[in-house]
Design a protein that fits this description.
The protein has a two-stranded antiparallel ribbon. The chain has one domain: Four Helix Bundle (Hemerythrin (Met), subunit A) (Up-down Bundle). It is built from 7 helices and 2 strands, in the order ααααααββα. With about 180 residues, it is mainly α.
Length: about 180
């Protein structure tokens, strides 16, 4: 499927509401528990999404449009949320995410991107050559990936309580980490 800017914006606009619906007013253990080991809690995931809104998607799109492959993207700190969000509540994070996301959607709209702009190339520090279209598609899929991660992490809170039905619940079988 080709990347269409209207579809990208439509999806990006929905994620803050989806996360708020999933996480607001839940008891702390639903928000802060993870899947064990080095996995992330829903709280950690929302913090990670905020960090991405601040430092990743729009800054990288601007680099592609202004410098192309002549300037590599800044490396992304996948773990910055652990320091940045100490002492915050999930409601504060959801509010921040919504603010940053709406600002970024506005920035994306005022870029007045044309279909040929999506083919412009940039330089990822690890992946090498990438296009603006790939960046925007990744932004959408990144949201979906983390929504699935939050769903899986929350589902695992009732791993034992579902009893023998676990055999029918595919979400209980996935074992991916962040």
């Amino acid at each position: 499927m080709e990347v269409e800017l209207n579809h990208v914006i439509n999806h990006l606009h929905r994620t803050p509401t989806t996360l708020r619906t999933m996480l607001q007013e839940l008891p702390s253990e639903w928000i802060t528990n993870n899947e064990g080991g080095q996995t992330w809690s829903p709280f950690d995931v929302v913090g990670h999404l905020i960090h991405g809104e601040r430092t990743d998607w729009i800054p990288r799109a601007k680099i592609i449009l202004e410098s192309g492959e002549n300037q590599a993207f800044e490396p992304f700190d996948r773990y910055a949320q652990f320091e940045e969000n100490k002492g915050k509540t999930i409601d504060e994070l959801l509010d921040l995410f919504e603010i940053y996301r709406l600002d970024n959607i506005h920035m994306l709209k005022i870029m007045n991107l044309l279909p040929e702009d999506l083919k412009k190339k940039g330089k990822h520090p690890e992946l090498g050559r990438v296009t603006l279209g790939e960046l925007l598609a990744t932004w959408v899929v990144h949201d979906l990936d983390h929504i699935a991660q939050i769903s899986r992490t929350m589902s695992r809170q009732y791993r034992d309580e579902v009893g023998p039905w676990r055999a029918y619940l595919s979400i209980m079988k996935s074992t991916t980490a962040p």
